[in-house]
């Protein structure tokens, strides 16, 4: 056991050494500094300034600099695929990648997105997302990111960025910072306490910087009363000094407000280079920045630093050597001159499949094998009759939901609906399919009465605030299923004793009406699975694989239980502090319907033999600043292990989860916080050692007084389990000062 532990530690340490290596940045900076000397002032200004909205083929474009062979940089959305280009792969959304809890799939998805971006000549892919983190369950863009838990989000950021950047494209971690809702997003101030900021909202960005992310996007909102893109506190001090970020900060589109202050605060690139609004064509940088430098209000050194950072990121990714030309235009239908999709559909399918979360499975109604007849019910079972891309930026909820709406989207090359895939399967099993693919309850009841088993599809959608869908201005008006989904399920459950409910949703949905129906035997949570939706669902429903997704957020019994939600206000005081999602439910003793980390399998898992090996010393983290923060913060300080056995009769994958509770000497902290997880693929009766490596950060809190991460002294609580509430093993360890 001990030997195994050391070999686990040795391999993870080797991986870490790679990701922390600053040699890549040093070499890139040397090249950038040499190139800087060859540039004239106009070229420098052009490198930091967008060419105006729709002024080039991509959603963001800068000016080229011939003297050093530097191109007009192409910046393109989105976090789930290349936006406004086709053909591309429409991957499962970030929230589904989070729901897999599978590092290798997060990496594979990032690598495939990166390969498509590079193939299309995109220099900077505008993702992944860690803000919104998702403290508001009704926040419109929570599905673009991975999880409301900063640890899970952080791992997903790191894996995705490494995948993308190893494919050659620059990643962009966004939106920095506190961009938790769509209403008033350009005016609201996120007033976040220093401790909650560090332990929740900054945390996943630390992972992003540690993974050497090339760029960061500052957000629309204000942070503590100052615009994000004008804030010395969050750009210079936090992102660059404290986190040691060596890449560049770009503005969200039109999130810049001044020429001089933004430059002094640490903004390095303005996007898209013109004001969307008024007066038309107004611009803060470009010639205005040149004038400000000439007048001495912005030092020349600041411009040189912006340019150096942007060039260094370009060299870091070797984009100076034979990078493809842009092969599409966002403004003419996006038809690309190359096909970059490769076999990425299979990556999309595996991520979608392994993100399916089985919430309920009474009497083992799933998997279904050879039903004589199946009723397929609901408009969410079929593709929008007008086509999967009929609504611009997916700004409608017609047909099966496979991504949210807004800039975080891509064109579907095709969309396999649940009905398509179930029909194909039913030909193999000789099942009669009875369809009712509207949300009409009378037709639904009739179909349900005629079949052995009824599968009802419902959904809930949200997106970016520039589009309003069915009265939802980005953020969701409520957490109920759309299109009267509760009534649809009730109508079906009144007529059929074997009802399976499939939910496609951007985030939590209140399921109480559905759970209360005794005939609803199974609930399948499919999130927003992208183009392979139906195939992935059939893989799980028919038992080709066991479901293995786990909830990346809590599903409450009622909306108010979350204690947070988007505000119709100009200030959000983040008064809940650290107590969001399960941290809040645990602290307040609230019982969720389905807790964070929950998800069933077709098999069962047994946990035993907890091993605790921790050698941390109490006190503040010191050491030089490396990408991510003080070096000591990322050093291994031990590992927790457990034996996990597949105790059932079919193969399956378990996400073993580690939660840590801080000692009483720490200031008030959530009872337990996720600090490790491992997805284990196990054949029936097979056992394996789960090993959760701990770093100093995992045991630390942010000490506001000393402005340092501190490992408190005292007794730490260790919880290992199958979810945040299904704790199977417990222990403690003590750290002394
Ligand atoms: C605004 C969005 O907030 C951001 O995520 C996106 O990258 C830009 N628009 C460009 O489309």
UniProtKB/TrEMBL annotation:
* Top-level lineage group: Eukaryota
Matching InterPro entries: Cellulose_deg_GH3, Fn3-like, GH, Glyco_hydro_3_C, Glyco_hydro_3_C_sf, Glyco_hydro_3_N, Glyco_hydro_3_N_sf, Ig-like_fold
Subcellular localization: Secreted
The catalysed reaction is:
Hydrolysis of terminal, non-reducing beta-D-glucosyl residues with release of beta-D-glucose
What pathway is it annotated to?
Glycan metabolism; cellulose degradation
Cellular component (GO) terms are: extracellular region
Q: EC no.?
A: 3.2.1.21
Q: A GO term (biological process) for this protein?
A: cellulose catabolic process
Member of which family? Belongs to the glycosyl hydrolase 3 family.
A matching Pfam family: Fn3-like
Q: What does this protein do?
A: Beta-glucosidases are one of a number of cellulolytic enzymes involved in the degradation of cellulosic biomass. Catalyzes the last step releasing glucose from the inhibitory cellobiose.
> Matching Gene3D superfamilies, A to Z?
Glycoside hydrolase family 3 C-terminal domain, Glycoside hydrolase, family 3, N-terminal domain, Immunoglobulins
Which positions carry the signal peptide feature in this UniProt record?
A: 1-17
GO molecular function per UniProt: beta-glucosidase activity
**Class in the EC hierarchy, top level:** hydrolase
Q: Which UniProt keywords apply?
A: Carbohydrate metabolism, Cellulose degradation, Glycoprotein, Glycosidase, Hydrolase, Polysaccharide degradation, Secreted, Signal
Q: Per its UniProt record, what SUPFAM superfamilies does this chain match? A: (Trans)glycosidases, Beta-D-glucan exohydrolase, C-terminal domain
Provide the Fibronectin type III-like domain boundaries. 654-724
Q: What is this protein called?
A: Probable beta-glucosidase L
């Amino acid at each position: 056991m001990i030997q195994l532990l050391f070999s686990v530690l040795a391999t993870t340490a080797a991986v870490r050494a790679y990701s922390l290596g600053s040699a890549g940045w040093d070499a890139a900076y040397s090249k950038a500094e040499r190139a800087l000397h060859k540039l004239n002032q106009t070229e420098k200004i052009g490198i930091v300034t967008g060419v105006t909205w729709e002024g080039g083929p991509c959603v963001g474009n800068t000016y080229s600099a011939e003297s050093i062979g530097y191109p007009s940089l192409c910046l393109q959305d989105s976090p789930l695929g290349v936006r406004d280009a086709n053909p591309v792969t429409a991957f499962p959304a970030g929230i589904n990648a989070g729901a897999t809890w599978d590092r290798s799939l997060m990496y594979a998805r990032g690598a495939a997105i990166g390969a498509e971006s590079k193939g299309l000549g995109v220099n900077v892919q505008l993702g992944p997302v860690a803000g919104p983190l998702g403290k508001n369950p009704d926040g419109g863009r929570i599905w673009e990111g991975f999880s409301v838990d900063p640890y899970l989000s952080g791992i997903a950021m790191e894996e995705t960025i490494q995948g993308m950047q190893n494919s050659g494209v620059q990643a962009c971690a966004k939106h920095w910072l506190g961009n938790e809702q769509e209403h008033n997003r350009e005016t609201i101030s996120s007033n976040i306490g220093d401790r909650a900021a560090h332990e929740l909202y900054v945390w996943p960005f630390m992972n992003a910087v540690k993974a050497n992310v090339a760029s960061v996007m500052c957000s629309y909102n204000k942070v503590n009363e100052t615009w994000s893109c004008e804030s010395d506190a969050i750009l210079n001090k936090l992102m660059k000094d404290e986190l040691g970020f060596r890449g560049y900060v770009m503005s969200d589109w039109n999130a810049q407000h001044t020429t001089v202050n933004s430059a002094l605060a640490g903004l390095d690139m303005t996007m898209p280079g013109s004001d969307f609004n008024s007066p038309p064509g107004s611009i803060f940088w470009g010639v205005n920045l040149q004038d400000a430098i000439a007048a001495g209000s912005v030092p020349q050194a600041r411009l040189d630093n912006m340019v150096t950072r942007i060039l260094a990121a370009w060299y870091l990714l070797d984009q100076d050597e034979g990078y493809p030309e842009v092969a599409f235009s966002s403004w003419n239908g996006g038809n690309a001159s190359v096909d970059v999709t490769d076999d990425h559909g299979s990556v999309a399918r595996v991520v979608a499949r392994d993100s399916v979360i089985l919430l309920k499975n009474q009497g083992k109604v799933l998997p279904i094998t050879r039903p004589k007849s199946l009723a397929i019910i609901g408009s969410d079972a079929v593709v929008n009759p007008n086509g999967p891309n009929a609504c611009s930026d997916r700004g409608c909820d017609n047909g099966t939901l496979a991504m949210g709406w807004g800039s975080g989207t891509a064109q579907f090359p095709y969309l396999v609906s649940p009905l398509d895939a179930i029909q194909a399967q039913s030909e193999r099993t000789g099942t009669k399919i009875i369809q009712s693919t509207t949300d009409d309850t009378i037709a639904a009841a009739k179909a349900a009465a005629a079949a052995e088993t009824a599968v009802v599809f419902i959904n809930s959608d949200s997106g970016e605030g520039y589009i309003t869908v069915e009265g939802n201005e980005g953020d969701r008006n409520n957490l109920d299923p759309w299109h009267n989904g509760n009534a649809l399920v009730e109508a079906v459950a009144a007529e059929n004793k074997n009802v399976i409910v499939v939910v496609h949703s951007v985030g939590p949905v209140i399921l109480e009406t559905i759970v209360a129906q005794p005939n609803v035997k199974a609930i399948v949570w499919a999130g927003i699975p992208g183009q392979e939706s139906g195939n992935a669902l059939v893989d799980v429903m028919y038992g080709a694989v066991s479901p293995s997704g786990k909830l990346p957020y809590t599903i409450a019994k009622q909306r108010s239980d979350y204690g947070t939600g988007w505000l119709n206000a100009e200030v959000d005081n983040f008064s809940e502090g650290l107590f969001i999602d399960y941290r809040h439910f645990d602290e307040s003793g609230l019982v969720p319907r389905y807790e964070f980390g929950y998800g069933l399998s077709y098999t069962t898992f047994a946990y035993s033999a907890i091993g605790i090996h921790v050698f941390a010393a109490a006190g503040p983290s010191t050491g030089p600043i490396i990408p991510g923060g003080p070096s000591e913060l990322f050093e291994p300080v031990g590992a927790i292990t457990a034996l996990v056995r597949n105790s059932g009769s079919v193969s399956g994958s378990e996400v073993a989860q580690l939660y840590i509770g801080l000692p009483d000497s720490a200031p008030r902290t959530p009872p337990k916080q996720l600090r490790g997880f491992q997805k284990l693929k196990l054949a029936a009766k097979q056992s394996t050692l789960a090993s959760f490596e701990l770093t100093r950060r995992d045991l630390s809190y942010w000490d506001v007084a000393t402005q340092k991460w501190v490992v408190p002294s005292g007794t730490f609580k260790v919880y290992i389990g199958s979810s945040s509430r299904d704790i199977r093993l417990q222990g403690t360890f003590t750290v002394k000062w």
